[in-house]
Design brief:
Layout (H helix, E strand, L loop, with lengths): L1 H7 L15 H4 L3 H9 L5 E5 L4 H5 L3 E3 L4 H7 L6 E4 L2 H11 L3 E3 L12 H10 L4 E4 L5 H4 L4 E2 L2 H10 L4 E5 L4 H8 L4 E4 L19 H10 L8 H18 L1
Parallel strand pairs: 1-2, 1-3, 3-4, 5-6, 5-7, 7-8
Helix pairs in contact: 5-6, 9-10
């Protein structure tokens, strides 16, 4: 996301409290390997989820978010072959919602793949009145158990508008703080990972601490630096997304 900020505002200083705070999903789609995959499908229109590297964005025709992916795919010509990257789970969900056949890059977010179906079923039995809500980066078997599927922002809005007072939340647990803050009288239940582990917390997100933020703002580093050519190429599919989203 820091790279996206730099792409959109190349003249501004973009700081990252911990330069290693990346994304497992982005790591799962190396630019050179993706280039080979893309070149093996030369007739395909490339749609990439925004959680990818700037190099992959630069190879894409259109960028999407989990909020607008289905809508953007639906705007493309029906006979246009589409390559979707890097999250295969999100791609499968978009495929089901749009009823479009997509060629998927086999990437995944390790956070959303650690949730346990067994744990969700156990929680449904324990909290029979709770609604199950999930992010579309989860695997299909978990999405099939959900009452509502949506992006982070849509999950936040849904928990505020729903009449339910209990929610079993299948996404990165950091969101529960904001949900509880917005709805202090409602109960939000975290889903453990496989075998009850706490491995569903994103290790990259937790690299950014208050101490590192203080040091970052005090010394104005580490600064994210990107090549002008990558910025210019990656900006094109982002601007296309913004234009199609208006």
């Amino acid at each position: 996301m820091a790279e996206t900020a730099k792409i959109l505002c190349p003249e501004k200083i973009v700081l990252l409290p911990d330069i290693e705070a990346g994304c497992t999903l982005a790591d799962d789609c190396p630019a050179e390997e993706f280039r080979i995959f893309r070149e093996s499908h030369p007739d395909h229109f490339v749609v990439s989820y925004i959680n990818c590297t700037a190099d992959v964005k630069a190879q894409s025709d259109l960028i999407c978010t989990s909020s607008n992916a289905v809508d953007l795919i639906n705007q493309l010509p029906k006979d246009l072959p589409i390559l979707f990257a890097p999250d295969q789970n999100l791609g499968k969900w978009v495929q089901r919602q749009s009823k479009r056949k997509l060629t998927l890059w086999p990437g995944r977010c390790i956070v959303h793949e650690t949730f346990s179906e067994e744990e969700v079923l156990a929680l449904k039995l324990k909290y029979p009145r709770a609604e199950v809500i999930a992010h579309p980066e989860c695997m299909e078997n978990l999405l099939d158990l959900a009452h509502y599927i949506g992006s982070t922002s849509k999950l936040l809005k849904y928990t505020s508008s729903s009449t339910s007072n209990q929610f079993i939340v299948i996404t990165e647990p950091g969101i529960l703080y904001q949900m509880r803050l917005n709805n202090p009288k409602k109960e939000f239940i975290e889903v453990p990972g496989i075998d009850g582990c706490s491995c569903n917390a994103c290790p990259y997100m937790r690299l950014n601490t208050l101490e590192k933020l203080f040091e970052c703002m005090k010394f104005m580093k580490p600064e994210l630096v990107m090549s002008k050519s990558i910025i210019e190429k990656a900006l094109i599919p982002i601007e296309k997304m913004l234009k199609m989203s208006n």
